[in-house]
Specification:
single chain; 314 residues; alpha/beta; UDP-N-acetylmuramoyl-L-alanine:D-glutamate ligase; 4-stranded mixed sheet; 24% strand; globular; binds adenosine monophosphate
């Protein structure tokens, strides 16, 4: 089954405690589509400027990402720059966001794209997300969305409309709290459910992820790494692994959703090991499988309660 993503393709400039990178490949849809491409066919809908380098289109093509929906326009590619706190890599400040060619982007989907069964509305203008969803026919089996503080603060009412129209929402914990107006994450998830989505995935950076699927909660730590180089794109790569797994298996049971969260975490953990999509784009299936197994050893405690149950003071 196939997967369609609409989102940003960007040039990012980032400063992290490990160093800095100027004007390197980024964008929510870029990370997402490379991550998902390891598991499922993926089609990308986005816009790039005339400054976008051919080698970056080739990189997407080398992952079999369908780039027929990647429109080239006169002007500059979307640009974002941010700086990470030296004390806490979960803390990031956006220095600049330049929409550039995205400001005028109005995608018209092909019949084949409209009929895709899994749709991911990556972090981009909520109005654009609504327009894309409105073109889908029939309604996809699963529609998921990601967003970011930029839109929560700047396009709140459109964001509420699109959140109300999707099945699954990915937000990071600060965004979930801001959107829901709730500090407690379980309460924030409930508030987001009340707007519409039946699955709420709250990304917590190096603290892992909380999945609320109807009445079922699932919490997972992040894979433990001894060095994080650049957290940019971790959330989109997580979503790519997650949605790639769902599109590949079609398994939307609670177990299937949990497995997707594990795979998303595995993929996101690779992204942060280098700048831009350098590590993410160079993965082998064996590396993914090995890290999945290592993650299972890191987190697994099923069965530890054997031998007559837990001790109890007489
Ligand atoms: P993440 O670290 O997963 O939250 O995603 C970071 C990516 O999102 C970067 O590569 C940026 O290019 C992209 N990005 C940042 N701000 C925006 C925005 N306002 N709209 C769309 N994409 C953005």
């Amino acid at each position: 089954m196939s997967l369609l993503v609409v989102g940003s393709v960007a040039y990012d400039s980032v400063q992290t405690p490990a160093g800095s990178r100027d004007v390197s490949l980024g964008g929510s849809a870029t990370y997402f589509s490379i991550a998902a491409s390891y598991f499922s066919p993926v089609s990308l809908v986005a816009v790039i400027g005339d400054d976008f380098m051919p080698e970056h289109v080739e990189l997407l093509e080398s992952h079999a990402v369908d780039v027929s929906g990647l429109e080239r326009r006169e002007g500059k590619t979307f640009r974002w720059s941010g700086v990470y706190s030296t004390e806490d890599l979960n803390e990031r400040e956006t220095l600049d966001t330049q929409l550039n060619v995205f400001a005028e982007f109005k995608p018209v989907l092909t019949d084949q794209q409209r009929a895709t069964e899994y749709l991911f509305l990556a972090n981009i203008d909520p109005q654009l997300q609504l327009e894309v969803l409105g073109q889908m026919s029939p309604r996809p089996k699963l529609v998921a969305l990601d967003s970011m503080n930029f839109w929560i603060e700047g396009a709140r009412s459109h964001l509420e409309d699109i959140v109300g129209a999707v099945d699954l929402v990915f937000m990071d914990e600060g965004e979930a709290r801001a959107f829901a107006g709730e500090e407690n994450l379980a309460q924030a998830a409930s508030r987001i459910h009340s707007v519409g989505p039946r699955i709420v995935v709250i990304k917590r950076g190096e603290h892992g992820v909380l999945v609320s699927n109807g009445g079922s909660l699932f919490a997972l730590p992040a894979f433990i790494l001894d060095r994080v180089v650049d957290p940019t794109g971790a959330g989109d790569s997580f979503a790519g692994g997650f949605m790639g797994m769902l599109a590949a298996t079609g398994d939307l049971t609670d177990g299937g959703i949990r497995r997707a969260a594990v795979l998303g975490s595995v993929i996101g953990s690779f992204t942060v090991q280098d700048f831009s999509a350098d590590r993410l784009a160079a993965l082998s299936h064996d590396e993914i499988t090995d890290r999945f197994a290592a993650f299972e050893r890191l987190t697994g405690f099923a069965g530890l309660e054997t031998g007559g149950g837990l001790p109890q003071r007489e």
